[in-house]
Write a structure and sequence with these properties.
globular; 4-stranded parallel sheet; 5 helices; 147 residues; Rossmann fold
Amino acid sequence: MTAKSILMICQGNICRSPMAEGFFSHQLNQSHSSITINSAGLAAVVNYPAEPKAHSIMQKYGIDISKHRARQLTDTLVREAELIFVMTKRQLAALEHKYLFVKGKAFLLGYWQNFEIQDPVNQSIDAFEKVYQQIEMAWQDWKTRIL
């Protein structure tokens, strides 16, 4: 399942998907991979930066997401992505309902261990830390399948 482009999707594109985009980009850069990573939201808070707590957690692990600006999911982004990751089963269902052609290329980020990554917005820094840990676990499961 080698992909040249990966799209991370969450709800607002200010917490989970920018964290996942930043984490996967960081890991892929360290592997000298040419895979591109993007992110978008199903109901994005367009042009907003990543949530400060998301930025803080990523910075703690040496990953810079300060340039991130939220963007709305578009037909073009969905079509161009070879692999799409969502954070919850509900998001996957919404995506598959709107874009029938995504079956087989859209997956729950926590697919291999069957976990969802819940939205940490308006929660403590610990909730953002949990999101980071879940993204890291998902990377461990996906890395051999995408590199």
